[in-house]
Every structure is written in C-alpha cells, then in structure tokens.
Amino acid sequence: MTSSTGTTDLPAGLTHRRPTLADAEAILALTMDPAILAWLLGRAREYVDLVAGEWGRPVTMSAGSFRHDQMYGEIQRSAGLEVVRSFWQMRLVLDELQATPPPLPPGVTIRLLDAADEAELRLAKRLHDESFADHWHFTPMSFEQ
C-alpha cells in the first residue's frame, strides 16, 4: 500500500520511500543484542531484495560497525556483508582559538558567494563536484537538483 507521501508499507513493519539518488542504500546503524541484530539484518536483506525486484535493478545494502567490535562485524559478515571501506574518526582538541588566521597560499582568495550570479553558482557547484569526485559514495547531481 502506498501513501500520499510516497512511502510503501511492507510486511514485518518495514516502510520504504523511493530515494531520489541513483543508487539506493539501506543503512543500518544498530547497537543491540546480537540475536536481534542478526534478525534485523536478515529482514533488511529481504527488504533490499524486495526493493531491487520492484525497481528492476540492484540495490546496495550497507551496515557499519566499529573495527574493535568483532561481534557486530561477524554478525554482518554472516549476513553476507563484506568490508569495503574503513573510516577514521579523528579529533584535535584546541585549548584556544588562534587569534590571527594563517596566511592563505598564493592565488587563494576567500570571499562571499554572490547567490544572484548563476555563473558563480555553477562554478561553486563544479568546484564541489570536482572536490568530492573521488569520495566514497559521492553521487554528482545536475545544477538544477
């Protein structure tokens, strides 16, 4: 059953909404009892298969856990998931803010964007796309999006 908001009610109390990006992901970020996590991952696999069949194309299912949490990693591997990417969580504690910013490299200027200038907006969009093109899961969008 599809509601007026575009969501679909599925068996087992799951709900999905069609994403607007080219590749859909089912993302789980769970911290709970291992038996519950294993059950939920199984239901998520069923859901992803259902959505892939409905859309007629593959759908990616992603789940995450901390490297040191071997139990959750093993449950995810048991559900057929594999490690494709690791992330670093980094932190720098500053006792005081630097009173004067460091000098900019030659040729670099910091200024406000003129939101009324379409050419400038397109340049900012191009810079964003080029900057994140190699970032994991980056999906470029058109200027109009």
Task: Summarize it.
With 145 residues, the protein is α+β, with helices and mostly antiparallel strands.
Kindly describe this structure.
The chain is α+β, with helices and mostly antiparallel strands. It is built from three helices and four strands, in the order βββαβαα. It has helices at 34-55, 70-78, 118-132; strands at 7-9, 15-17, 25-28, 60-63. The strands form two sheets. It has a two-stranded antiparallel ribbon. It has a two-stranded parallel sheet with strand order 3-4. α1 (34-55) packs parallel to α2 (70-78). The longest helix is centred in the N-terminal third of the chain and has 22 residues, at 34-55.
